[in-house]
């Protein structure tokens, strides 16, 4: 059995060039726990500047057609490495890969990219239920939340497949409306896993309706909202609900930044600043990625808008070094540190 089948089973220029020094001038405060990267455990305090929601490789075939042998590791690494090297030069230290199992999670590729570029990279465990359960494997319909949790705990304790590489967080996904029974099961499994491992729950969610239903399930299981990352919260246009979730303690992830929507993200961050909640927001691109089956991996969107566009805009709008460090250095370390957060 080859290793893939085994895994399957189980000023703009000035600001960019100064960013590494700029980001490190302000002393960070607070207690930091471990984070788990694809090369092992490290202190969350050492994550540095972090992109919290990106993708290296994505395969949209679906769980029933999923076949990791469709891509060649060397080709993926050749295509992706320059994009990672670019953000390292711009001051990025850590990179959270949010691609779940059955959509292109490949721990071996991530570890080789981490070793080759010097980036700290995190991968995940969990099941992605969005997109009408297209990426939900058959066993998830038969098994209980306890059964699913045992699978995810096993990956955290023993590593993914035969790789020895451990996940640093959970990635699940739900539909944009009220939670289905399947999605309630995924959230419950994530809650049970968190209590046993301390892994943070990042859930592809979007609108507020499922987000607050997820938070209720977590609270019913004795978990503080701080264990939850509301992924794609920018899809909820009522920004008062962003503030409400942050006030509860949840992490609000605005992770669709691109070259065209910088002003919108600036407004989002002003809203958090005005409500004194910058310490609860995460910013990223949801960019990349290598697409198996497409020529040269398909069209790749770089991970650079944060550095080249957003940070200069923030600096021009009254966000000092301390505030920028809070968003991109302190928050990711606290959000993705491994510790149980009970009510």
Description:
- With 343 residues, the chain is of the alpha/beta class.
- The protein has a single domain (33-335), classed as TIM Barrel (Alpha-Beta Barrel), CATH 3.20.20.
- Helices cover 42% and strands 12% of the residues.
- The protein contains 12 helices and 11 strands.
- Strands 6-7-8-9-10-11 form a 6-stranded parallel beta sheet.
- Strand 10, helix 10 and strand 11 (281-283) form a beta-alpha-beta unit.
- The model is unreliable at 1-30 (pLDDT under 50).
Annotation, overall tally of beta strands: 11
Number of domains: 1
- What is the fold-level CATH name, i.e. the topology? TIM Barrel
Give the helices and strands as they follow along the chain. Answer: HHEEEHEHEEHHEHEHEHEHEHH
The fraction of residues assigned to DSSP E strands is 5-15%
- Apparent shape: globular
* Low-pLDDT residue spans: 1-30
Structural category: alpha/beta
Q: Which architecture would the CATH scheme give at its second level? A: Alpha-Beta Barrel
Strand order of the largest sheet: 6-7-8-9-10-11
What percent of residues adopt helix (DSSP H or I)?
Answer: 40-55%
Name the CATH superfamily classification. Metal-dependent hydrolases
Radius of gyration, CA atoms, in whole angstroms:
19 Å
Number of helices: 12
Can you describe this structure in just a few lines?
With 343 residues, this protein is an alpha/beta fold. It has 12 helices and 11 strands. The protein has a single domain (33-335), classed as TIM Barrel, CATH 3.20.20.140.
